[in-house]
Each structure stands twice: as structure tokens, then as C-alpha cells.
């Protein structure tokens, strides 16, 4: 695959409007966060979202989900041949693929996650659940990081962590809703340890103490991932940091709402109000961008294939005026921190 283009990403105005409508209909949280991205990055991010949304909808709305999977794989084949069909989402996504040299393994992983949903898979352990989350969420986070012009392995690993955290939060929020659809995503060994019979719970979902404790355990796992993921924001261009920090804070707030409800996500579905989202966006914008090292902890074992696919053959150096300015500010901040430390010791 050719190297990413150094030109500014441009999308046909009509396609840009189609992508905006897709995100407006599908995710108010993503829409709010994407508004904070710089223009070309915002257009590419929305094109990515539009394709992901179209793929998900195609499978969900097909009379035979297996046929939906077959069609979306065929559409991905056409995109990577550079011959997308007439679907606006495909025509927008092919521009992203070509401009950013997007490795096929990333969107292919997303579709594999959709396939696991069609198969109605269950997950024995938290690691198995993270393997699923890697495909349906971390894959998108890694693609977003490449769109922002970053291919450093440590930053990619933290983006994958954020995807895992967000998906675990989604699962914790949707326990009751999923059960009423005959689905359960919580790790089966956790349910065994809590004394919960999965089939009995799906048949009659109730917010019993054991299920509340299991939801809490899942959110605890997500909190660890959020903490590590947030360090990766320091590795992004300055112009993108507020948007990503906002998205992380908004998703993490869903977990807080579940906690306030006593970890009952069975009788009610947690949500974050528009007012609260705006407060979190303001907090993200007001957070000083001081020097903070990106955690170099190895990527979670279930997302390493995504990190390696994204990093393979790419140059780990930021480019453009914004990235250079960001490095200079961070170096100046680090220098000032060290100077004060020396003065304090004197």
C-alpha cells in the first residue's frame, strides 16, 4: 500500500453532508466530539464513522445477517480495489483508505467483530471479551489515530485501550437491553463466580446483587483502561486533543451514571444529558496541555495485532506545523518543570 498522502484530506461536499447526517442519526456523542476536530481530520473521521455505521446497519437490517456480512465484505473488497459502489459511505471511505494508506486489517477486524455478533458468541473470560471489543471498538480507535497523523506504537496502544474501555462501558450499560434481546456479553466465568445462571438471567433479567457486582467488576476493568488510555492523548496533535479527551470523558461518564444507579443497568439504561456532555467538553477544553509522558505499557494482548498492522511500514514521526508546535510547547514545558525542580533543590 502506498504511503499516506501529504496533501490535506478533501471530501466532496455532497459526501461530506451524507457522512454528517449518518453521524447525526447514529451518535450524538461522536457528533459532539467530532466538532472539536480540525476540518480535514473531522471530515475523515466522519467518513470513517459513516462506513462503520453503514456496515453495522446493513447486517442488523438484513433478513439474513449472513448475507449482510457477505455484502459488506464484498464492498470492502471493492473499496480496497479503488472501485467502490454507489453507496455514499463507501465512496467517502475509499477516500480515507487512499489518503491515509489505511491497512485493510483494521476495517476487516471490525467486520469480523460483526460476524461474532451474528454468530451470537459468548465470552468465557474477560480476555475473550476484550478480543471482541478489540474488533468492534479498538479497530476504530486505531484508525482514528492514523487519521490524526500518528503511528507511534505507544500512542496506538493507548488508542486501542480507549476502544476497549469504551466497549466495556457499552456492555455494562446495555446488560438489561441485551438480555431482553437474548444476548449476554458479560464474561461467563465471572457469572459463574457470582452464582448467576446466564440462561436464567436472559429469561428473566433482574438487578440482583450478584449481577450488580458483576457490572461493577466490568466497570472497574474499564476504569483501569481509561486511566492508561488518557496518557495517549499527549501523543496526539494539539488540535485533536480536546476532541479525544471529550469523547473519553463523555463515555467514562456513562460508567459514573451506572455507579450512581447502584450498578443497575438492567431496569434502566444509563445516559448522559446534553447539558452534562457540554460540561465535560468544557472541562476537556480547559484542561492544560502540560507535558505528560505517554504510557509505554505494552498493548493489551488482544489488541496487539491492530497496533502492529497500523504501525507496520509507517514512519513514527509527526508532521505538519501543528505537530511541530506541539512538540516545541511540550519541550518548553518539560524544560520549565526541570528548572523549577533544580531551584527547589538548591
Could you walk me through the main structural features you see in this protein, from its secondary elements to its overall organization?
The protein is mainly alpha-helical. It has 2 domains: 1-102, Farnesyl Diphosphate Synthase (Orthogonal Bundle), CATH 1.10.600.10; 103-316, Farnesyl Diphosphate Synthase. The chain contains 16 helices and no strands. Mean pLDDT is 87; it is low at 315-346.
Write the layout of secondary structure elements.
Blueprint: H1 13-26, H2 28-34, H3 39-61, H4 65-81, H5 88-100, H6 105-118, H7 126-147, H8 153-173, H9 175-180, H10 188-194, H11 198-203, H12 209-230, H13 238-260, H14 274-286, H15 304-311, H16 320-345
Helix pairs in contact: 1-3, 1-5, 2-13, 3-4, 3-5, 3-6, 3-7, 4-5, 4-6, 6-7, 7-8, 8-12, 8-13, 8-15, 12-13, 13-14
Amino acid at each position: 500500500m502506498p504511503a499516506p498522502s501529504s496533501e490535506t484530506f478533501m471530501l466532496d461536499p455532497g459526501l461530506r453532508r451524507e457522512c454528517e447526517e449518518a453521524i447525526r442519526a447514529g451518535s450524538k456523542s461522536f457528533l459532539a466530539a467530532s466538532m472539536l476536530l480540525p476540518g480535514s481530520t473531522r471530515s475523515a473521521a466522519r467518513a470513517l464513522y459513516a462506513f462503520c455505521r453503514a456496515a453495522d446497519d446493513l447486517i442488523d437490517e438484513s433478513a439474513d445477517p449472513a448475507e449482510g456480512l457477505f455484502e459488506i465484505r464484498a464492498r470492502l473488497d471493492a473499496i480496497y480495489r479503488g472501485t467502490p459502489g454507489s453507496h455514499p459511505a463507501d465512496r467517502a471511505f475509499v477516500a480515507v483508505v487512499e489518503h491515509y494508506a489505511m491497512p485493510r486489517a483494521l476495517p476487516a477486524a471490525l467486520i469480523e467483530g460483526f460476524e461474532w455478533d451474528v454468530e451470537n458468541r459468548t465470552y468465557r473470560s474477560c480476555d475473550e471479551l476484550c478480543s471482541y471489543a478489540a474488533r468492534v471498538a479498538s479497530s476504530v480507535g486505531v484508525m482514528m489515530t492514523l487519521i490524526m497523523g500518528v503511528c507511534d506504537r505507544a500512542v496506538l496502544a493507548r488508542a486501542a485501550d480507549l476502544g476497549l474501555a469504551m466497549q466495556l462501558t457499552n456492555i455494562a450499560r446495555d446488560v438489561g437491553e441485551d438480555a431482553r434481546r437474548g444476548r449476554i456479553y458479560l464474561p461467563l466465568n465471572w457469572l459463574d463466580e457470582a452464582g448467576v445462571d446466564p440462561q436464567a438471567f436472559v429469561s428473566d433479567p433482574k438487578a440482583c446483587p450478584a449481577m450488580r457486582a458483576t457490572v461493577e467488576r466490568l466497570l472497574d476493568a474499564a476504569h483501569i483502561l481509561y486511566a492508561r488510555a488518557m496518557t495517549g492523548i499527549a501523543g496526539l496533535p494539539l488540535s485533536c486533543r480536546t476532541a479525544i479527551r471529550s469523547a473519553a470523558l463523555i463515555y467514562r461518564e456513562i460508567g459514573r451514571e451506572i455507579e450512581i444507579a447502584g450498578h443497575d443497568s438492567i431496569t434502566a439504561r444509563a445516559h448522559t444529558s446534553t447539558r452534562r456532555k457540554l460540561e465535560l467538553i468544557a472541562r476537556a477544553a480547559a484542561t492544560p496541555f502540560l507535558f505528560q509522558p505517554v504510557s509505554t505499557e505494552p498493548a493489551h494482548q488482544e489488541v496487539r495485532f491492530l497496533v502492529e498492522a497500523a504501525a507496520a511500514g509507517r514512519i513514527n514521526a509527526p508532521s505538519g506545523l501543528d505537530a511541530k508546535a506541539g512538540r516545541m510547547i511540550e519541550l518548553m514545558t518539560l524544560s520549565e518543570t526541570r528548572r523549577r525542580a533544580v531551584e527547589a533543590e538548591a
